Amino acid sequence: NFSSTYVLSRKINSVSVIGSGLMGSGIAQVTAEAGYSVYLIDQNQNALDKAIKSIQNSLTKTTKKRFNKEPEHAERYIKDTLDRIQTTTELDSGAEKSDLIIEAIVENIQVKHDLFSKLDSISPKETIFASNTSSLPISEIAQAVNRKDRFGGLHFFNPVPVMKLLEVIKTHETSDATYKTLLEYGLSIGKTTVECKDTPGFIVNRLLVPYMFEVVKMYERGDASLQDIDTAMKLGAGYLIGPFELLDHVGLDTSKFIIDGWRKRYPNDLSFESSPVIDKLVSEGKLGRKTGEGFYNYR
Ligand code: CAA
Ligand code: NAD
């Protein structure tokens, strides 16, 4: 058990979220809903515009039910939440003012290192850094910074506004004060937190990713159709969505990054074998829901 009652956590007022894709937009949304002021930062202006639209859509869905008798409250709530989010393509403008910076950019260690080393030089020294990586060791990402005691993992689940879980990851260098601050931030945005060590895939992905790739192997062998596999796992195992729907939902590129990375690191583990079908779909730009096609067609 990592929690330590006698450690003072740090007060968080302002949060920067870097990367405004599937995950970053959701993280910015739930953080702004909890009352924090948020900088949403991306290198790509289009991604920022898309993120604001997706936050608007998401808030429209969640407030419809919540304020069904008072639609004017829903409007106010959406406006107040969006007012707390500032978007920018300039890293400095947000990073200089934030108490917590959450990184949600592409799953690539080199790109993450470049980003964190820049952030380390421009952010106040007390600012806490966190990565939303799905599969990379947090301690390895933290190699790029001097503040290793103020670095941890905040692993969210997609779609962020819907999924209740937040995995909070401590490396052997994360200080108790930082860890406590990250856990408190998680509770403040309404998530249920679980404490994770810095092991591959933490809790959920270590189990979920090999399951998804095992499923694709079954399909590649021709044992069953993908529709039947999805139906079977939903109706026979009680899963909310089938494994191919889940792959399309997560993104086939992200899934491929994860398995390729693990296979390189752990070449003897057979649960990390690649999938020719996924490699082919990714090479054709069929990345799942986000591009309109993956295993299924969404157009
Ligand atoms: N924002 C807010 N609300 C949303 C939403 C969003 N982006 N997407 C869906 N919802 C809400 C809908 O409004 C609806 O709410 P009500 O029940 O109150 O009406 C509810 O969620 C269900 O949505 P839909 O009816 O539109 O569609 P659905 O039933 O197909 O649900 C889903 C969509 C929420 C994505 C659902 O399929 C689901 O939860 N799937 C499982 C997702 C999952 O397992 N995620 C984890 C992936 S692994 C991961 O994230 C880790 C990693 O590192 C790869
Ligand atoms: P995505 O492709 O939807 O979004 C990534 C965004 O980062 C893009 O908008 C891109 O323009 C931006 N970006 C890339 N490099 C950047 C840089 N140097 N500076 C600023 N912005 C940059 O990806 P995603 O699915 O949101 O995944 C982001 C991270 O979250 C990854 O580490 C992934 O492993 C992790 N994650 C993904 C899921 C999932 O289900 N997709 C779930 C949990 C965690």
TrEMBL record:
PROSITE patterns: 3HCDH
Organism: Brachionus calyciflorus
EC numbers: 1.1.1.35
GO molecular function, a single term: (3S)-3-hydroxyacyl-CoA dehydrogenase (NAD+) activity
Subcellular location: Mitochondrion matrix
Positions contributing to CoA binding: S58, K65, S134
Membrane spanning residue stretches: none
Reactions accelerated catalytically: a (3S)-3-hydroxyacyl-CoA + NAD(+) = a 3-oxoacyl-CoA + NADH + H(+)
UniProt keyword annotations, A-Z: Fatty acid metabolism, Lipid metabolism, Mitochondrion, NAD, Oxidoreductase
Gene3D superfamilies: N-(1-d-carboxylethyl)-l-norvaline Dehydrogenase, domain 2 (1.10.1040.10), NAD(P)-binding Rossmann-like Domain (3.40.50.720)
Cross-referenced InterPro entries: 3-OHacyl-CoA_DH, 3-OHacyl-CoA_DH_CS, 3-OHacyl-CoA_DH_NAD-bd, 3HC_DH_C, 6-PGluconate_DH-like_C_sf, 6PGD_dom2, Mito_3-hydroxyacyl-CoA_DH, NAD(P)-bd_dom_sf
Leading EC class: oxidoreductase
Name assigned to this protein: 3-hydroxyacyl-CoA dehydrogenase
Annotated ranges, domain 3-hydroxyacyl-CoA dehydrogenase C-terminal: 201-298
Residue span, 3-hydroxyacyl-CoA dehydrogenase NAD binding domain: 15-199
GO cellular component: mitochondrial matrix
Binding site for NAD(+): G19, S20, G21, L22, M23, G24, D42, E107, K112, S134, N158, K290
Pfam families: 3HCDH (PF00725), 3HCDH_N (PF02737)
GO biological process terms on file: fatty acid beta-oxidation
Record family assignment: Belongs to the 3-hydroxyacyl-CoA dehydrogenase family.
Site (Important for catalytic activity): H155
Pathway(s) of this molecule: Lipid metabolism; fatty acid beta-oxidation
